[in-house]
Amino acid sequence: MLLSPGTELGRYRLQEKIGAGGMAEVWRADDLTLERPVAVKLLTEQISLDPTFAKRFFREAKVTARLEHPNILPVYDFGEHAGLLYIVMQLVTGGTLRERARKGTDLPTAMSWIRSLASALDFAHAEGVVHRDVKPANVLLDRSGRPLLADFGLAKPRDAEVLTVAGTAMGTPVYMSPEALRGEELTPRSDQYSLGVLAYYLLTGQPPFEANSMFVVMTKTLYEEPGLPTGLKRELHRSVDYVLLKVLEKEPAERFESCGEFAEALIHAAERSLPPPSGSRSGAYR
Description:
With 286 residues, the chain is an alpha+beta fold. It has two domains: 8-90, Phosphorylase Kinase, domain 1; 97-270, Orthogonal Bundle (Transferase(Phosphotransferase), domain 1). 36% of the residues lie in helices and 18% in strands. The protein has ten helices and ten strands. Strands 1-2-3-4-6-5 form a six-stranded antiparallel beta sheet. It has a two-stranded antiparallel ribbon with strand order 7-10. Helix 4 (107-126) packs antiparallel against helix 6 (188-204), helix 4 packs antiparallel against helix 10 (259-270) and helix 9 (238-247) packs antiparallel against helix 10. It is globular, with a radius of gyration of 19 Å.
């Protein structure tokens, strides 16, 4: 089915394509019944015809729809039309955290984001859901700057059947935990690790491990220790080193008890940091 502005999927009329990936497209659309704008995520035709991916897609809708939290993107509806699978979500127009972080942000805003995302993740974990792909591109910002955790396409209730081949890693390498790279069962502390990578990036301007090769990033994540954040941002207090190195421990048991505990420890440590030098525009403090 060829998608174009004006195409109708049941009660939803597509208006403009606002995003695309290898598996899906996201369109701005109108809900003709409730007369409100929405975002419609559609699987490609090839993926829609694959029963395994279709099952994962509908699981995303069902999992996210039951997670009612101020920092989780709401799901309104999902279904199938002319062979295409779709999910309908709140339309958020403030861009992604990835786009915003590239421009830089101040310390209080960064800490507010971490606290909000930690709250969202702890809520999901309490409901038995592990997100599995926490990264800046999966955090949307509304017009007020409120972060909304999105794309639970890799999320899996802890009691659900595994839809991937054992030993297969899913996610984005820079933000993946060591256990994710090893293809092991993921837990809430795996999400916590990814949130820690995100926090490290916001505070220092770069992730703990980066390279031109995904293989090198994966190797570093598995076997090397991250650099001290204070070595990258001198105004950070040394207690930030302790918090971020703890959340990035290779073994999940060595991390914090919850995302919220990590966030509060980081905020307390960051409050002891010096303000950036006057006129500084380096890293994430801008």
